[in-house]
Structure formats: structure tokens, C-alpha cells
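Write out C-alpha cells for Attractin/MKLN-like beta-propeller domain-containing protein.
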Amino acid sequence: MVGNTPDTSAHWIQDAPLLVGRSSFGAVLLPNQHIMVAGGRCNSSAILRASGIYSASTGWNSTSNMKESRYQYTLTTFANSTKVLAAGTEHPPAQQTAEVYDTKNKTWTLTSTNMSTGRYLHTATLLQNGSILIIGGKNSSGTILSDVDIFMPSSNSFSKVNSMNMGRYLFTSTLLNDGSTVLVTGGGNTDNQMTSTAELYVSGSWIPTNTHMTQPRAYHSAVLLKNGNVLIAGGGDGGTTSYSTAEIYDPTTRTFKPTASMKYRRGSFTLTLLPSGNVLATGGVDWTTKTLPTMCELYDPISQTWSNTTSLNYGRSLHNTILLNDSVLTMGGFNGQSARLASCERYKY
């Protein structure tokens, strides 16, 4: 449903579908509560350049295509969300490239320089100073990267900065409350094994946290809580095992401690911080049972407990969720079928 939906408390409402189904794509919030999606896979063989813009009043409309086909890449807003950086891709010819979408002229332009290395399954984190940190990932040779680039909007170019202490992919990166420190957790290491290690980007250097996570994780999610702590949850190995466990990172002590487990095992899912301070866990895949949990749940940081909230209409992983003024929009994803999901659902909070 598009436009004025009924004010239904804690319920998933079907919304306008994407113009094309997609998974492993990028999604960002633009000014005026608009959302951009770009790239991704639309089936087991086709990679997308297509982009679309959502508004609650009109649903999805096309905008200009990216210069390159991209999936397993990063999409990041900057310049007060008036520009968008698309960086990397698993698509080999374009792995080292990046491009910028300008919301004013609605065009994509390649950056002045490429990244220092091709990469995918990396992360991108917007720092308070307006630059974007591009971290880790894999390259076309299968090398797991510790390399880090920084994108400088003023020059529309990349510079290489200090590398992480270890290579990793399928990890998380979270900007902490000071606006400049980035927490990196877990992922697959250079032996292609899940790791419990974590490290911090502080003043241009990488520092290991004082403790490891409570367990190794990849395909997990992390979100900054209102109190400055970070909630890390779920994950798995991408094949036979998923986790329901969760933990809290305390930036004061630089340590991890366990918190209550989710009610469902989830990998390749999303965590969304709601205005209430609670966190919504949406979708994902349980590789242990080969199922897609549709029930969503809320984490309460005060009681440190999870509770069921309401079910998605469609199970999905490798999807995206964006927080809007009155709801969370969940878009696309993968449900085990070749054709990716076009369906979108809105959670009224």
C-alpha cells in the first residue's frame, strides 16, 4: 500500500514493490524521507546497474543507472545526504571503481581516482568530518583484504590509509558516538574462518579491542545504541550454522559481554535502531534449519531482553531496511529462489 496507510501499531504493511527484485544491493536514506536503492542481483546470473527512488506518496520511480553493475558493494550518503557513493563490486571488471550520485542533477559520475584495490564484501563508514572509510573485503583473486581507503569528498578521490591488523570480509563496522572512532567486528579472516577478533580505527591507527567478541561471527549485524554501546547479534558461516546469540560492546572499557540471545537464529539480517531506543531485528536466514525466520523481534537495551513483535509477510535475507519518520521500510532480498524479491513491507512503530 502506498501513501496514507492506517496507523496500525507494530504491524508489517505491504508497500509498493521495487521496480525489479534485488538482493545484495545498496539502500540509503535521502533528504525529504526519500530512499534510493541501487545495484544488486536480480537473479542467480544478472547483476544490476539500475537505481530507484522511493517516496511514500509515489512509491518507486527509476532514476539514472549506475555506470557499473554492482553487488556485494557499499552505498553511502555524504554531503548532508545530497550525494551517494557507490564503491566496489563483486563484478570483476569494476571492482576497483567507485561513482557518485548527485541528488540535484540525478546523475552518476565516476570518482576522480579508483580505490587502491578492488574489493567487495567490505564496509563503508561515513565519519563526522564528511569523509568515508572503505574497509577490508575480498578482491577478484580471492585475497582477504586488510587494506583501508578513505574517500575525500573535496577531491572526489581515494587515499590509502593504515591497514587493519588482519584481513577480513563479511564483518561489521560501526561509527561510535565520538564521530571518528570506528569499531570493526568479526568476519571471515585470511584463513576463511570466522573470527571473534575486533579492532578500532582511532586517529588513523588500528587498535585491537581489549577483549575478543564472545564468539566468532560472520554475516552478523551491529548497531549503535543510544547509550553509546554497540549491540552485535546473530551471524553464522553462510552454509550450515546460524546464531541467535548477541553481545554488547562497551566503548569505555573496550570489551564485549554477552546479552540475551535472540529468539531466532539469523544471518544476513538487519538491525534497526528505533526512536524509542529499542532495536528491530528483521529477516535473515537460519542455515542450521535451512529456514527464513519471518517473525521479527525487538531488543530492549534497558532490560537487555528480546521479545517477538510481528511477522514479515515474506521471509528474506540479504535485504535492506531503512528507518523513516514513522516506520521502517524493508526492501527486496533473497528467499532461496533464483528470482530475488521485489516486495517491500513497512513496519509502523
